[in-house]
Amino acid sequence: QAIGNTLIYVLCTVVTQMVLGLMAAYFLNAPRTRAKSFFRLSIFLPWIISTAALALAWRYLYDKSDGPLNLIIRALGFQGVGWLQDVRVALPAVIVTGIWWRIGFNMIVYLAALQTISVELVEAAKIDGAGETTSFFSIVLPLLSPATLFLLVMNAINSFQVFGQVLIMTEGGPANATNTMVLEIYKNALQHYEFGYAAAQSFILVAM
């Protein structure tokens, strides 16, 4: 179950945070965008916050009784949701946290890559009749392939190693719905003292 949860987390977070990071970078790279510094800082700030602080903040946000999300839902006349207590929504709630956390890292890498692309190439394409969408998919996106490959590898590694936010937010519950591979290894090694079992699980993680 820990392997399955981890694979779902990886599949949902890696591509999503790359797409959102690219969208943010493309928007902030446009010369007409105002308040660039403010938006860059706002999007990148979560990445430099410690895992513990981030997880505690989101655990409060998801709180079943007094969390801001449920207060808004109740104010609209609906019943509150046990975001981290319901088996059906606990893992998606953790996934949303992971995506929000890493968008800034993806944005910075893509923004640096975008600024290396020659403006003349895009302008030449526009002179030849290419629109904004055609220029992006035919020129910009292929030139971003090195950054995309780098982010794909780094995001996959980070997502496979997800641990801190799950430990603090849910401890792998409810009913192991958010249990991940690294958390399972941690429990077996440092809570149950089954070091051989944890070591064998670690080899599976390394192989993956």
Describe the structure.
The protein is mainly α. The protein is built from 11 helices and no strands. The chain is globular, with a radius of gyration of 20 Å.
Strand and helix map with partners:
Layout: H1 2-29, H2 36-48, H3 51-61, H4 68-75, H5 90-114, H6 119-127, H7 132-143, H8 145-160, H9 164-169, H10 181-191, H11 195-207
Descriptive labels:
mainly alpha, globular, 11 helices, 208 residues
Number of helical elements? 11
Which class do the helix and strand fractions yield? mainly alpha
Question: What would the average pLDDT be, to the nearest integer?
Answer: 92
Q: Estimate percent helicity.
A: over 70%
- What is the succession of H and E elements? HHHHHHHHHHH
Overall shape: it is: globular
The count of strands amounts to 0
> Biggest sheet, open or closed, and with what strands and sense?
none
Distance N terminus to C terminus? 15 Å
> Uncertain spans, ≥5 residues at pLDDT below 50?
none
Q: DSSP strand (E) fraction?
A: under 5%
Q: Radius of gyration, Cα only, in angstroms?
A: 20 Å
